[in-house]
Sequence to fold (149 residues):
Amino acid sequence: MLTYQNRKRPVLKNCPLCGKLFADTGAGCCQKCYDAYRNYEVEVKKYVEANPNCSAGDIVKHTGAPLVVASQMIQDGQFAMKGRVSYPCSRCGKLILTGVYCTSCQQKVQEATSNAHRVARENERKYLKKDKQKQKESGLNILKILRGK
Fold:
């Protein structure tokens, strides 16, 4: 049996889309904006079914849906079986069919990540060497003190 303390209660928030105060039960926006988003999704689905090889720009132009809605639906894979829908790369804007980045941007991101890991490993080695050197020196100092030098 659920007690009062275990139940999730809605939290009052401002809608990130329209700014109005609403009780958030998990949708992330007010009911009016949520309904508008769902209506955009229905329009986009109908357009893609009628025009299977369209781009995200075509979807926005013909349905009036925001590019964010169309791109999110494409990236979520909602049109995977309905044809080849292209949308812009998140980094450079080149039209792509899958993923978030085009191949060249994906390579650049991977290179940057590997360089960052390499630099982090080098810095870690430097710090470890310094710590070991300090430990040796402190050990030698204790031996010198014990020997009376």
Remarks:
- Helices lie at 31-50, 56-63, 67-75, 103-147.
- Residues 103-147 form the longest helix (45 residues).
- Strands lie at 11-14, 21-24, 87-88, 95-96.
- The chain has a mean pLDDT of 79.
